């Protein structure tokens, strides 16, 4: 088992009507002028945005708004947000929405707090030395960005999707009212559940470290999300299931399920980010489409973990060889994806890359990870291409 830093400074305010506390929380963390940043309009339609700005007005906190963060959020809007914040002397960011609005807010925060081009951080050219303080009102359980150190931005030129992580961008507070997720389309709910499970699985399928307590937390989280995703599949307004999934989403990506291991595998995410950049697919669906091919490519190099996953998470019987049990676990996971209407290959995802596009994605992915990466199995460009081809 390895040593680790566990840093989760985000104050979580969880439960019904918690968005009403937004003004107090902004004040608590020193905000005197706020940029309220949101996505394509779901928070306008649901009335959440108006409720939030009303609360700020009642409390005498000045604010400006900027909507338009698209799924796989764009760098262009980040630049716009940075200019707006500088012009309006904004000192606090409030991301209202999903991972895209939150990540876009984080990037704006880097751009305001640091000189030069914010893309440099996502292009691994230099490191940020700060970020404007940020609070979050979450409307979709998925990325865990509400507690995570990461943000993922797409540069329109060249369709390059890259993540940047630093503790500066961990939100000061996260307001999580499970009821706010009830307006989600079923597809987005399923995408979110997939992403939450994948954040845990990326840290679980590793060949370094591994602690019993971390495994127990991870397996419990995976079983809980699987069970409640199936409940939401039938009963989308089920509050308790919404709440279980929402809290799981935060715990899956705040570092808890990685303590003691070697940092995680993360190759399914890296392979998906190329799909998201090039084809603008929903992140969770892209992960589901690629995971089975990745798993079959790597499982022999990480057999004890795949066997454990099959038995402890997917309820596979302990019958047959380790390889047979591991493969049954992979098949059971894909069956689960199908049940919640997630794709298990690129065709079902709705994309049909040419040979050249597959090669381009593998090349960009390899560049993005500095040549090779992975813990279950280290993958180079050739291996990445093989997985993309297997997922067709
Ligand atoms: O844009 P609006 O109109 O708000 O609609 C969104 C969007 O169309 C909609 N939505 C969200 N909450 C809703 C709702 N519709 C109705 N009712 C609600 N309550 O759902 C759609 C998806 O929203 P988005 O924010 O894009 O989803 P998600 O939270 O899955 O974020 C995806 C982005 O986060 C990145 C992904 O790569 C992708 O770019 N990730 C960020 C991570 C992080 N910061 O830690 C880690 C992840 O692995 C991931 O890479
Ligand atoms: Zn993810």
Name of the CATH architecture of the largest domain: Up-down Bundle
Q: Spell out which ligands are present.
A: 5,6-dihydroxy-NADP, zinc ion
User: Spans of 5+ residues with little confidence (pLDDT < 50)?
Assistant: none
Helix coverage percent: 40-55%
Radius of gyration from CA coordinates: 20 Å
Mean pLDDT, as a whole number? Answer: 97
CATH superfamily of the largest domain: Dehydroquinate synthase-like - alpha domain
Coarse structural class = alpha/beta
Oligomer class: single chain
Main sheet, how many strands, which sense, barrel?
A: 6 strands, parallel
Specify the number of helices.
16
Walkthrough of the structure:
There is one protein chain. The chain is an alpha/beta fold and 392 residues long. The protein folds into two domains: 11-180, Rossmann fold (3-Layer(aba) Sandwich); 185-390, Dehydroquinate synthase-like, alpha domain. 50% of the residues lie in helices and 10% in strands. The chain has helices at residues 22-28, 42-45, 48-58, 75-88, 99-113, 119-122, 186-204, 212-234, 239-253, 267-279, 283-298, 303-312, 322-339, 346-349, 355-368, 381-390, and strands spanning 11-14, 34-38, 63-66, 92-97, 134-138, 150-155, 160-165, 173-176. The strands form two sheets. It has a six-stranded parallel sheet with strand order 1-8-5-4-2-3, with helices on both faces. Strands 6-7 form a two-stranded antiparallel sheet. α15 crosses α16 (381-390). The longest helix has 23 residues, at 212-234. It is globular, with a radius of gyration of 20 Å. The model has no long low-confidence stretch (mean pLDDT 97). Bound molecules: 5,6-dihydroxy-NADP and zinc ion (ZN). 5,6-dihydroxy-NADP is lined by residues 39-43, 71-72, 97-101, 103, 139-140, 142-145, 148, 150-152, 180-181, 183-184, 188, 191-192, 195, 253, 269, 276, 283.
């Amino acid at each position: 088992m390895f040593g680790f830093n566990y840093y989760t400074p985000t104050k979580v305010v969880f439960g019904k009507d918690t968005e009403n506390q937004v003004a107090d929380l902004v004040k608590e963390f020193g905000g005197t002028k706020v940029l309220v940043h949101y996505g394509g309009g779901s928070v306008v339609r649901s009335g959440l945005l108006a409720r939030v700005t009303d609360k700020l007005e009642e409390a005498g906190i000045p604010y400006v708004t900027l909507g338009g963060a698209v799924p796989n959020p764009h760098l262009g809007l980040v630049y716009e947000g940075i200019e707006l914040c500088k012009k309006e002397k904004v000192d606090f960011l409030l991301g209202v929405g999903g991972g895209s609005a939150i990540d876009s807010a984080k990037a704006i925060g880097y751009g305001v707090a640091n000189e030069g081009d914010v893309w440099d951080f996502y292009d691994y050219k230099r490191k940020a030395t700060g970020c404007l303080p940020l609070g979050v009102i979450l409307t979709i359980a998925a990325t865990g960005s509400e507690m995570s150190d990461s943000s993922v931005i797409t540069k329109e030129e060249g369709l390059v999707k890259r993540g940047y992580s630093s503790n500066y961008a961990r939100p000061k507070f996260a307001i999580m009212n499970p009821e706010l997720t009830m307006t989600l389309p079923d597809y987005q709910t399923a995408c979110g559940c997939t992403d939450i499970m994948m954040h845990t699985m990326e840290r679980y399928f590793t060949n370094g470290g591994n602690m019993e307590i971390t495994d127990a937390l991870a397996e419990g989280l995976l079983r809980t999300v699987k069970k409640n995703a199936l409940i939401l599949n039938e009963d989308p307004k089920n509050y308790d299931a919404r709440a279980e999934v929402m809290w799981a989403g935060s715990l899956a990506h705040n570092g808890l399920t990685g303590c003691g291991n070697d940092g995680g595998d993360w190759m399914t995410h890296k392979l998906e980010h190329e799909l998201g950049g090039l084809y603008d697919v929903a992140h969770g669906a892209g992960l589901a489409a690629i995971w089975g091919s990745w798993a079959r490519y790597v499982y022999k190099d990480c057999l004890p973990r795949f066997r454990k996953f099959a038995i402890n998470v997917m309820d596979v019987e302990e019958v047959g060889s380790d390889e047979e049990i591991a493969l049954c676990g992979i098949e059971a996971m894909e069956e689960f994806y199908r049940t919640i209407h997630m794709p298990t290959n690129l065709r079902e995802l709705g994309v049909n890359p040419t040979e050249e596009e597959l090669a381009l994605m593998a090349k960009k992915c390899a560049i993005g990870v500095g040549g090779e990466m992975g813990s279950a199995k280290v993958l180079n460009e050739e291996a990445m291409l093989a997985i993309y081809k297997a997922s067709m």
